[in-house]
């Protein structure tokens, strides 16, 4: 039960301070097969002087690091020991012809029930960098998440200076209450959910919270060394600003895709996004320590957790004591600094080199225009609700369709097409059925339609989607995540998208390639991708509250004609509903 000494040594050399112990490793083709076991089990932990039982993987919070190389095959056996149904999503992994391993409950699989197990079996092809894994059912990912680190192939180097050490930092969101109870209450009353009690770095809230000084994340650095920080926003409902006092950061990767390097003092990362940055330590150790802070970027009208998580960057020195050092504090933008975020987002560009090309679809086969935003559902009879009015509940939608999860998995229904009748329909609208002034005065009728509606597209279709925020119940930034694909962000802007004047300004040369993008508050973003991966793929807001309210849809990408363009049959241990 552990890697061989040779493999262990290779991993230590490759990732510096990382420690990973896959259970067994076997050679295969160009990569190797790595085995992990995830035991889903409860654990009592204390945060903010509050003890509670949380759902974990292997009793760890955050969960274990999964470390592989590009080209490796990953076999993860997930065994469920808790009453909650569970599934694990490998966020950002392309899952080429392995959609059965993608993980969102009721989309590509039924969830794993207590006492049952499922082996996620997939190969990581053409990807390297920082991703993460998390539970993909209800709000369990509040505590069930961890880093997925894909190293370059052996003998391949980074397209930037080799770091002295690599350090994953996961942004999280802590609730004193049970997150499942929080969202269940919200869905019952129709009101906004209670907000979290703290943000965390690697599970630790830090000294700005009640009785949490001992629970502070500390990053110790040596003078003159360069560190690769693998930043992951695993928070449930909040985009976050991040900064380290008196240190600039060089952005080198986003969502496991290398980008043209640029320097910044402040980052903004949405839930579902990852950003790799180089931190160059000062050449001589200063006699101070430095706070690293993260706090929300919030644009909506609802309440949010307006607190700040703090960690400490300390320089290692042989002599002087750390205890009496003063702490420097970084500045962060205003909570609603929309222009800063737009400017920051526009700095991301693909490398677009021969080795790391930007294969942007130059011609588009199918164009889509999706509104994303909030809305309302009627309150049940004889009940008073806590939505925008006492007769309505909060809802969310794309093109005014609020996505309803089916009771069986969509991918299974699609694959065995005789079962699809009654599970879903294929009439998700390509454009809003009733156009309106999307970012102007909202319409009087804010009711949404419910449905499990999908879009069907042929294999290898080149797709363009314009995602348009609306002002219904307040304009708001929405981090949209697409499963099974990366996409190119070819354009963005404020106000309503102009189909005549905006496309000529699209960047079709070196746009950033991502799996999650923030739709600007009161604006739009345009993405393109090549539908070369057959299966059923969820696209949703990565604010869990909005996903719970129905802000999502799914694509059915049909099989191609060749054998390597078809989805294989499901594995024999695929969970049943």
TrEMBL record:
<comment type="similarity">
    <text>Belongs to the multicopper oxidase family.</text>
</comment>
<feature type="domain" description="Plastocyanin-like">
    <location>
        <begin position="40"/>
        <end position="154"/>
    </location>
</feature>
<keyword id="KW-0677">Repeat</keyword>
<keyword id="KW-0439">Lignin degradation</keyword>
<keyword id="KW-0052">Apoplast</keyword>
<dbReference type="InterPro" id="IPR008972">
    <property type="entry name" value="Cupredoxin"/>
</dbReference>
<dbReference type="InterPro" id="IPR002355">
    <property type="entry name" value="Cu_oxidase_Cu_BS"/>
</dbReference>
<dbReference type="InterPro" id="IPR001117">
    <property type="entry name" value="Cu-oxidase_2nd"/>
</dbReference>
<dbReference type="InterPro" id="IPR011706">
    <property type="entry name" value="Cu-oxidase_C"/>
</dbReference>
<dbReference type="InterPro" id="IPR034289">
    <property type="entry name" value="CuRO_3_LCC"/>
</dbReference>
<dbReference type="InterPro" id="IPR033138">
    <property type="entry name" value="Cu_oxidase_CS"/>
</dbReference>
<dbReference type="InterPro" id="IPR017761">
    <property type="entry name" value="Laccase"/>
</dbReference>
<dbReference type="InterPro" id="IPR045087">
    <property type="entry name" value="Cu-oxidase_fam"/>
</dbReference>
<dbReference type="Pfam" id="PF07732">
    <property type="entry name" value="Cu-oxidase_3"/>
</dbReference>
<protein>
    <recommendedName>
        <fullName>Laccase</fullName>
        <ecNumber>1.10.3.2</ecNumber>
    </recommendedName>
</protein>
<dbReference type="InterPro" id="IPR034285">
    <property type="entry name" value="CuRO_2_LCC"/>
</dbReference>
<dbReference type="Pfam" id="PF07731">
    <property type="entry name" value="Cu-oxidase_2"/>
</dbReference>
<keyword id="KW-0964">Secreted</keyword>
<feature type="domain" description="Plastocyanin-like">
    <location>
        <begin position="166"/>
        <end position="316"/>
    </location>
</feature>
<keyword id="KW-0732">Signal</keyword>
<comment type="function">
    <text>Lignin degradation and detoxification of lignin-derived products.</text>
</comment>
<keyword id="KW-0186">Copper</keyword>
<dbReference type="Pfam" id="PF00394">
    <property type="entry name" value="Cu-oxidase"/>
</dbReference>
<keyword id="KW-0325">Glycoprotein</keyword>
<dbReference type="InterPro" id="IPR011707">
    <property type="entry name" value="Cu-oxidase-like_N"/>
</dbReference>
<feature type="signal peptide">
    <location>
        <begin position="1"/>
        <end position="27"/>
    </location>
</feature>
<dbReference type="InterPro" id="IPR034288">
    <property type="entry name" value="CuRO_1_LCC"/>
</dbReference>
<feature type="domain" description="Plastocyanin-like">
    <location>
        <begin position="438"/>
        <end position="559"/>
    </location>
</feature>
<keyword id="KW-0560">Oxidoreductase</keyword>
<keyword id="KW-0479">Metal-binding</keyword>
């Amino acid at each position: 039960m552990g890697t061989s000494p040779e493999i262990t040594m290779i991993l230590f050399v490759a990732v510096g301070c990382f420690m990973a112990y896959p259970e067994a490793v076997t050679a295969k083709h160009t990569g190797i097969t790595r085995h992990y076991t995830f035991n889903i089990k409860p654990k009592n932990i204390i945060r903010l002087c509050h003890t509670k039982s949380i759902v974990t993987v292997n009793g760890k919070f955050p969960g274990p690091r999964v470390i592989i190389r590009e080209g490796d095959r990953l076999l993860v056996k997930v065994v469920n020991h808790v009453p909650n149904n569970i599934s694990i999503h490998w966020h950002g992994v392309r899952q080429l012809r392995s959609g059965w391993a993608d993980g969102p409950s009721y989309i590509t699989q039924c969830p794993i029930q207590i006492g049952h197990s499922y082996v996620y079996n997939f190969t990581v092809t053409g990807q390297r960098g920082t991703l993460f894994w998390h539970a993909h059912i209800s709000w369990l990912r509040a505590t069930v998440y961890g880093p997925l680190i894909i190293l370059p192939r052996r003998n391949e180097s980074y397209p930037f200076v080799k770091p002295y050490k690599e350090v994953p930092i996961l942004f999280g969101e802590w609730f004193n209450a049970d997150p499942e109870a929080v969202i269940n209450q919200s869905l019952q009353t129709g009101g906004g959910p209670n907000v979290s009690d703290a943000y965390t770095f690697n599970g630790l809230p830090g000294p700005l919270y009640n009785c949490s000084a001992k629970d502070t994340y500390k990053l110790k650095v040596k003078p003159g060394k360069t560190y690769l920080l693998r930043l992951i926003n695993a928070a449930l409902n909040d985009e976050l600003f991040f900064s380290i006092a008196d240190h600039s950061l060089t952005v080198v990767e986003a969502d496991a895709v290398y980008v043209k390097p640029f320097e910044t003092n402040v980052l903004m990362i949405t839930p579902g996004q990852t950003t790799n940055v180089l931190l160059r330590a000062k050449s001589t150790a200063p006699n101070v320590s430095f706070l690293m802070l993260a706090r929300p970027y919030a644009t909506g009208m609802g309440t949010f957790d307006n607190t700040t998580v703090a960690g400490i960057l300390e320089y290692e020195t042989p002599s002087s004591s750390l205890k009496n050092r003063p702490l420097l504090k970084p500045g962060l933008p205003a909570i609603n600094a929309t222009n800063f975020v737009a400017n920051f987002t526009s700095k991301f560009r693909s490398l677009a080199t021969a080795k790391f090309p930007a294969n942007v679809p130059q011609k588009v086969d199918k164009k889509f225009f999706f509104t994303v935003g909030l809305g309302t559902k009627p309150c049940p009879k004889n009940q008073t609700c806590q939505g925008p009015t006492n007769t309505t509940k909060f809802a969310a939608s794309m093109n005014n369709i609020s996505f309803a999860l089916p009771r069986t998995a969509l991918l299974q229904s699609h694959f065995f097409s005789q079962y699809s009748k009654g599970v879903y329909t294929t009439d998700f609208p390509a454009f809003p059925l009733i156009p309106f002034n999307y970012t102007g005065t909202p319409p009087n009728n804010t009711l949404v339609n419910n449905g499990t509606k999908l879009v069907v597209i042929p294999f290898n279709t080149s797709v363009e989607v314009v995602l348009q925020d609306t002002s219904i119940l307040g304009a708001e930034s929405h981090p949209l995540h697409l499963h099974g694909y990366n996409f190119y962000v070819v354009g963005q802007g404020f106000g309503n998208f102009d189909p005549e004047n905006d496309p000529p300004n699209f960047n079709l040369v070196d746009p950033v390639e991502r799996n999650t993008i923030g739709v600007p508050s009161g604006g739009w973003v345009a993405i393109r991708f090549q539908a070369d991966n057959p299966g059923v793929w969820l696209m949703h807001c990565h604010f869990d509250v909005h996903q719970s309210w129905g802000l999502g849809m799914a694509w059915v990408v049909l099989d191609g004609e060749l054998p390597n363009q078809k989805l294989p049959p499901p594995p024999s241990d695929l969970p049943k509903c």
